[in-house]
Amino acid sequence: MNNKRRSLVKNNAFQSIVASLICIVLGLVLGFIVLLIIKPSGAVGGITALLRSYFKYQDAKHVLELFTQTMVKAVPLIMCSLSILFCYKVGLFNIGAAGQYCIGIGIAIYAAIAWKLPWWLCMLMALAGGAILGCIVGLLKAYRNVNEVISGIMLNWMSLYVVNIMLKTVKQPNISETRNIPFNSRIPSLGLDKLLGNKYASIAIPLVIVIAVGIYILLEKTRFGYELKATGFNKHAAKYAGMAEKRNIIVTLAIGGALAGLGAAMFYLTNFQHWETEAATVPAMGFNGIAAAFLGGLNPIGCIFSSFFIQHITEGGAYIDNMTYAPQMSDLIFAIIIYLCSFVLFIKSVMNRSMAKNEKKRAALAGIDSVPGTGAALVADPPSDQDASADEPETPPLSEDGKGGDE
Amino acid sequence: MLLLLQYTLIYASVLILVALGGCFSEHSGVINLGLEGTMIIGALGGALTMNLMPNAPAPLMVIMVILISMASGLVYSLLLAVASINFKADQTLVGTAMNMLALAAATVIVKAINAAASSKPSATLTYVAQKESFIVRMGNFDFNWFMPVTLILLIAAYILLYKTKFGLRLMACGEHPQAAASVGISVFKMRYAGVMISGVLGGLGGIVYIMSGVSEWKFDYGVAGFGFLALAVMIFGQWKPHRIALSALLFGLFRALSQVHSSLNFIEALNIPAELYNMLPYIISLVVLALTSKKSRAPKAEGIPYDKGMR
């Protein structure tokens, strides 16, 4: 039984979840400290409002409506985080997801309002738009050696201005927002709106889960996914093994772009929100996707939960007392959480190291003579304290058969 | 035309400062994608200083603002140093987190400060009167004290990098840290130094940027990708200070064009939407990168956490 518990602790997925939870808790604690510094008396109320979000209402129906609304808003976030995750697995940091998302918005809204195309066609066009943008980044990376982060950022700003120019032609007369999406261009809900008590609920919600599972299968269970990941691990080795490493880079970024572009259509075609044609900043969705991807432990299924959590906190930002604190408190907390996520490898290695220490103690107690080989090896070669174990957190310092040492 | 020259010089100053920051960090082996965030924090530090001492005499104001901006940038860059040097974190992720953190933190802080004055606080800081301390009017041309400061720092950076023991050691750490360590150079110290210098320069670049054209700044707007433009300048400049200065002038010209196009009659006559001018610096930098990156030689070990045991 003990063994079972320990193998659970060693399990990579379990460690990822624990590491993410540690990041969240630390992020919230630091956020709380910021609230305390700004105004001590309101801090407890502030952090509670942030976490409780819309659950402060008594009416169950109202809570369900807002819960569904959070899901509707989590859909594009999940898509952006999948985009970032997919590219990251191949060793590419797709910060251009923000721009790909932006161009997806522009195309989806324009196709719906100006051309009155059916919803699925609008979605496909947004997907294609994102994919083309991703392709540009991929081509520049593969053939011109341009860092994908820098070209991604440049394209983000360009897409913002292009979308503004494009959508100014379909805006409402006196204000700078775009018009409503026509009914036949909206994503059908097939009764989900009644079921979930919110008129914006659509088939986008189940669809996003299907896509997440699809990405998981593609990455983990197919040869194509394996090739892509191999390219990410070592470009030169992949080339040597006969993989088209340049093509893989381009395809990866195109898929990443397609995911982000599709995500935009899945949100804006519900008519939940209009585009502000005087927007001066790139939508934050793509950047929050980075937070969601890493908080989700770089696992497509984990991203669903982390995105929902992030959206929940974002909604909570609106419930904070605006007189004393800025609603951007929630952004601040994600930013802290993402920063902490970069320590995940370190947290995991600490977990492995402390476990190794425990096992060593146990092995020593159980008596070295029962399994001489393993025991002696453990004593002779203790996990070195600093650098070595921090480098390779994935491999616990103990060998597998070390577990048998304490029967 | 004079206006175009003035803006070109001031934007080039920003780009030179920030790109030099990136240059020092990358020569030591750490990719600093958090420069954008460092600029925001430096700008915040400088702007708050101006708000706190509205009536200070001009020389004191200039010196204090420069020093505080540099110090805020330095402190903020430690976030990158600790994560990437001590904990061997993914430098791209840390840099991105720093950019988001700076934007959110600056917004929250400025709004908290403004909350005392109004019931609906904005994220804007104004420094109309204070800005005068930095400017010497020469007819139509506004000479800005930041321009000579940038020139001095540019020359200093060149000398530091190529003519001193420190600079050569720093570059060794970015090329082959293990070799550098084998002759007794502390890679950790050198990388800390590189990141901290980049923080100082990035912070200063931030305050220069927000004071370039306007006399108030909306902190929820960030610095509009200028930190990344500076990285493009750095790559175009092949990680060499003198080339960085030249490419910064080129980029600065295009950025200035987007600022002043409405006051130049012959350009305004072309009747191109304003958005296109806003896009111009980004388009140019992407094209330039596509044309020059192939041959570029980045420091060999940049982005790779230092590992004593590796060969």
Count interface residues per chain for the largest interface.
A-B, 53 and 54 residues
Number of domains of chain B: 1
Distance between the termini of chain A: 11 Å
Residue fraction in strands of chain A: under 5%
Radius of gyration from the alpha-carbon trace of chain A, in angstroms: 24 Å
Structural class of chain B: mainly alpha
Percent helix of chain A, as a range, is: 55-70%
CATH topology of the largest domain in chain A: ABC transporter involved in vitamin B12 uptake, BtuC
Shape of chain B: globular
User: How much of the sequence of chain B is in beta strands?
Assistant: under 5%
Fraction in helix of chain B = 55-70%
Rounded Rg of chain B = 20 Å
Low-confidence stretches of chain A: 371-407
Under the CATH scheme, the architecture of the largest domain in chain A is Orthogonal Bundle
CATH level 1 class label of chain B: Mainly Alpha
Q: Write down the overall geometry of chain A.
A: globular
Q: Biggest sheet of chain A, in brief?
A: none
The low-pLDDT segments of chain B are none
Your description of this structure?
The complex is a heterodimer of chains A (407) and B (311). Helix content of chain A is 70%, strand content 0%. By secondary structure, chain A is an all-alpha fold. Chain A has 2 domains: 60-326, ABC transporter involved in vitamin B12 uptake, BtuC, CATH 1.10.3470; 349-406, no CATH class. Chain A starts with a helix and ends in a 16-residue tail after the last helix. Chain B is mainly α and 311 residues long. In chain B, the strands form 2 sheets. Chain B has a two-stranded antiparallel ribbon with strand order 1-4. Chain B has a two-stranded antiparallel ribbon with strand order 2-3. Chain B is globular and about 60 Å long. Chains A and B meet through helix 6, helix 7, helix 13, helix 15 and helix 18 of A and helix 4, helix 10 and helix 13 of B.
